[in-house]
Design brief:
Number of helices: 4
Distance between the termini: 53 Å
Shape: elongated
Oligomer: single chain
Number of strands: 0
């Protein structure tokens, strides 16, 4: 139970840091020609591609969580949270990409 609590705190802190960085740091120059580290420096199309390409990392994380905790309940909660976050992120980045394309036309 303690590990689950530590994971929840770490997850919450990660989300809060990303939200604060996104709020206070303006979106810089976008690029698709060169590799970028920060997600906010990608174009909308690049954000969508990176979101889709991170699916294998999510599967590896799920396997790692299950092997670390050896609990189907913890793994189930983690899988549901990952699937919901993944679906939200992909649909949001796709909608923003298409909206940006329409505005440029």
């Amino acid at each position: 139970m303690m590990y689950f609590l530590m994971f929840g705190v770490a997850f919450f802190l990660t989300i809060m840091i990303e939200l604060l960085l996104g709020k206070f740091l303006k979106k810089g120059k976008t690029s698709e020609k060169q590799p970028v580290i920060f997600y906010r420096n990608l174009s909308r199309r690049g954000e969508f591609i990176r979101s889709v390409s991170l699916a294998p990392v999510a599967v590896a994380a799920i396997i790692g969580v299950h092997s670390a905790y050896e609990s189907y309940m913890v793994t189930g909660v983690y899988v549901i949270a990952m699937i919901l976050a993944f679906i939200y992120q992909i649909t949001d980045s796709y909608k923003k990409w298409k909206r940006e394309e329409r505005e440029q036309m």
